[in-house]
Design a protein that fits this description.
homodimer; alpha+beta; Uridine Diphospho-n-acetylenolpyruvylglucosamine Reductase, domain 3; seven-stranded antiparallel beta sheet; five-stranded antiparallel beta sheet; FAD binding (chains A, B); D-lactate dehydrogenase (cytochrome) activity (chains A, B); flavoprotein (chains A, B); oxidoreductase (chains A, B)
Chain lengths: 458, 458
């Protein structure tokens, strides 16, 4: 790595938009969870695809690693430049480039956040449905294949991107996909870059599918005596073919954390939060059916939020779930698990996890996108206690082992980053080597977010 | 290629299930459309993944090309062994391995056809929605990223496969994806093999998402004065957020062909065929709204098919569309175009195509999945007239050029095969070189379906 020569050349291109200030480096060396500070050598703030291409060419010429950065809200240290080099911060590439109302799509730069996009779309009657909670950048959401509360209805980032512009490891710029709603023209490169966490290229533009704002929306919260009852209600709801827009589970510990953090007055028991989108009649019909299912599973304290402000309050509370749990253990760090299992195994997986954590003496409230079989335990631990850290990591690994044994995955939506690299071989076997071969083909010098995703090179 | 040594070794493994009979070679040298006969050196009929792996290892050791074969219903010569070698016919790997009702998924072998699968699922209340018309094998449908009439509601093969088992070019067996409904664990290998047309590996098992059979289904056919009216009705329907399960366009020439071939008595004008899935009330509500939209666009002769037998008759007629058109020019060959454009450009694309074909004196009725912006012209030509063939190919190329200029794709669902290889560079630019790099990484000896999909090697 000839970092000095690279930085000289980058300065010529970017001027003040190449930063080496300590505060900037530290800011880009941090993550939301437990990973140690890992500052890069410099932070670049490009304003165009051409500049990203120039940055990449300069870094390639000097063998300097390049790591993309959106809002820094990923949970597994995806954006940390663990081998040093340059972090490319996409904050200044945050434009909504086009909205095609007739085609229900939008073309955006990667630094635009999902909330900014939806704010700009408000008057069009359209919205972008993927909702990971954090107000993440759309480029970052693409790179981690994010999803969240609405995936049960609208799918993940994988399902909501029809095309990308990508800067490759040698600085070439390619376009993948088109604005057509489907294509069979060759390998699905769009799908390959989505979820690649910046290890195959830097996303500089996205074409996103939009949805019509629903005529009617109805949300509700409902308490259950046991997690088992709640999960069985979810399974019945899915099997009845009810089209939920969201269906979220909170366990008793999460309810307690909400009460403490958000001043809620929830019964201290497991809950489901649900939302339906549709026509006025359609939503009513779904709500009635759902009410019957709930009754069959001892649901109680059913509370419909029909007004927009009540709905917003409900989902804001849910989105602050992790923060509520963080606040329950001030000064501690978090490790957020993310297994996803076939729905039929969900009750078992949640119960086994709760029992395991209790036995290990770990505080790890559970909440999740149960319509997808995806749930999180937000495990808190004292970073100054190495024994506790070991206990916590062992519990997380057992959770992954159980998920894989059930035909599931180590991560439903958070991705690999630094935190789940150790599970890749277990989950994919020789498939992990195939990923390594693809990485070698597209990034032979291992410049793009090195140390992540694929097997280490010999 | 040491074909004799390879065939000796394959015979030892497969016995009578390695065929060299002329009729078998000819059968596997044919395609549904205009490509010249291209018989392989032998046809292998494996019965297990292990056998496929053995076949692949033997062929790799002797540098013999391997091409997969499902039902031979692809439209671009995907299954033709244009460089000779062994065709692997998956007919004997046609089992439904598991149905997980609670998870709404099924595990199948690649030789099972979609109609066989749905027959076996009938009693479960579930079905597999992807419907390309032909009773294709599920492995073949995955390999061409097929879709068809129901993609507007349920997506394409890309959206309906959660995991695969694949034999790689060196005979290794990998599993991609899981039975969980979503994952962020690494590169999307499932998505990469789907649509790769057997150039990266041979699919030996698929995990498919199933859907609940709808409580109510309502289908209808409706005539319009012009294609423009019909397409504008489709655009309005989509923008109203109406959840169509199918919406198909036929032009006047197609209606004439139906009348001649299927004894139909349709008005000789453009038509839409539509289907709604939902609850009894939901379907009624959608039908009413659709009726209003139709009226706004001079639709007439509206005919609802509420009984299952009437619906089946309607869709059987639609699925026989290509055959009806083939029958209109006995002895001629067909070239089926497959462009897909953003919906807002659809009326223009269809009208330009019709005008272009008329001016060129070409018989090419138009029908398509207009809810996706995807339409076909089934172009007929006399194979003994080289001038006509040239005219037809030039018209097809102009159609692709227009689609690309509109932000669309050369192929919405038929794939590349031999017929669209010439459009790949135009559509993908340097992205086509990226596909070549991936092919080189996964199949360094160029054994899997060589001559397809990627740039020729130097």
């Amino acid at each position: 790595m000839q970092i000095d020569a690279a930085l000289d050349a980058l300065s010529t291109v970017l001027g003040q938009r190449l930063s080496r200030s300590k505060s900037d480096l530290d800011l880009h060396g941090r993550s939301e969870t437990w990973f140690p500070l890992s500052p890069p050598d410099a932070v670049a703030y490009p304003e165009s695809t051409q500049e990203v291409s120039q940055i990449m060419k300069i870094c390639a010429a000097h063998n300097v690693p390049v790591t993309g950065w959106g809002t820094g809200t990923s949970l597994e240290g995806q954006s940390l430049a663990v081998s040093g080099g340059v972090v490319v911060d996409f904050t200044r590439m945050n434009k909504l480039l086009a909205v095609h109302q007739g085609d229900m799509d939008a073309v955006v730069q990667p630094g635009l956040t999902r909330e900014e996009l939806n704010e700009e779309l408000r008057a069009t009657g359209l919205f972008f449905p993927v909702d990971p909670g954090a107000n993440a950048s759309l480029g970052g959401m693409a790179s981690t294949r994010a999803s969240g509360t609405t995936a049960v209805r609208y799918g993940t980032m994988r399902d909501n991107i029809t095309g990308l512009e990508v800067v490759l490891s040698d600085g070439r710029i390619i376009r993948t996909g088109t604005r057509a709603r489907k294509t069979s023209a060759g390998y699905d490169l769009t799908g390959l870059f989505v979820g690649a966490e910046g290890t195959l290229g830097l996303i500089t533009e996205l074409t996103l599918r939009l949805q019509g704002q629903p005529e009617a929306t109805l949300a509700a919260i409902c308490a259950f005596d046991t997690v088992d009852d709640a999960v069985r209600a979810v399974i019945d709801t899915i099997q009845m073919g009810l089209s939920m827009a969201r269906i979220e589970l909170l366990d008793t510990e999460t309810a307690k954390a909400f009460n403490a953090y958000a001043g809620a007055t929830m019964p201290e028991s497991p809950h489901l939060m649900i939302e339906f989108h549709g026509s006025e009649n359609g939503v009513k019909e779904m709500a009635e059916t759902f009410g019957e299912i709930i009754a069959d599973h001892n649901g109680h304290g059913f509370d419909w939020a029909t007004r927009a402000e009540d709905r917003n309050a409900l989902w804001t509370m849910r989105h602050n779930g992790a923060y509520a749990i963080f606040a329950a253990r001030p000064g501690w760090k978090s490790l957020v698990t993310d297994v996803c299992v076939p729905i039929s195994r969900l009750a078992e997986a949640v119960n086994d996890t709760a029992a395991d954590l209790e036995q290990a003496g770990i505080y790890g409230p559970i909440l999740g996108h149960v319509g997808d079989g995806n749930f999180h335990s937000v495990i808190m631990f004292d970073p100054d206690d190495p024994e506790q850290m070991k206990t916590v990591k062992a519990a997380s690994e057992r959770m992954v082992d159980r998920a894989l044994a059930m035909g599931g995955t180590a991560t439903g939506e958070h991705g690999i980053g630094m935190g789940k690299l150790g599970y890749m071989e277990k989950e994919h076997g020789d498939g992990w080597q195939v990923m390594g071969a693809i990485k070698q083909a597209l990034d032979p010098e291992n410049l793009l977010n090195p140390g992540k995703m694929v097997p280490p090179r010999n």
